[in-house]
Design brief:
Elements (H helix, E strand, L loop, with lengths): L1 H28 L7 E7 L5 E7 L5 H12 L16 H5 L35
Antiparallel strand pairs: 1-2
């Protein structure tokens, strides 16, 4: 009976260690998870939409200030910063989010639940 308990405790520690490695360390080690390239839709002179790849850059001082307000006010609890790959999301919010969009986020603000509208590209909808 004692060996079964020891085996269960050892297996529990082993699984927790494996989970920490797979979800914590492995993504930081893999080069494909550190990409900064993203796609952007650009309208040509003839009105056609063309997809181009570009390197994302760090936030501007004004964007950093807006992000600080977003965190301070607790907006990330209800509002998502991630367009998920589910039916209809691309029609409502635009293309599915890519890893490069979050290359400069620390911490990531994907929200704990999603009851408010997605705000990841809301700045593109309104001029001022």
């Amino acid at each position: 009976m004692r060996s079964i308990k020891s085996l269960a405790v050892g297996a529990g520690f082993g699984l927790v260690t494996l989970a920490i490695f797979v979800q914590g360390f492995l993504p930081a080690i893999l080069p494909e998870s550190r990409t900064t390239q993203v796609s952007r839709a650009v309208r040509t002179d003839l009105g056609a939409i063309k997809w181009v790849r570009y390197e994302s850059s760090d936030y501007t001082p004004l964007e950093k200030l807006g992000r600080a307000v977003y965190v301070r006010e607790g907006c990330w609890y209800c509002h998502s910063q991630y367009v998920r790959p589910v039916a209809g999301e691309e029609l409502r919010w635009g293309p599915v989010s890519e890893a490069g969009e979050y290359a400069f986020d620390l911490p990531h603000l994907f929200s704990t639940r999603r009851i408010g509208p997605d705000l990841t590209r809301v700045g593109l909808k309104y001029a001022d």
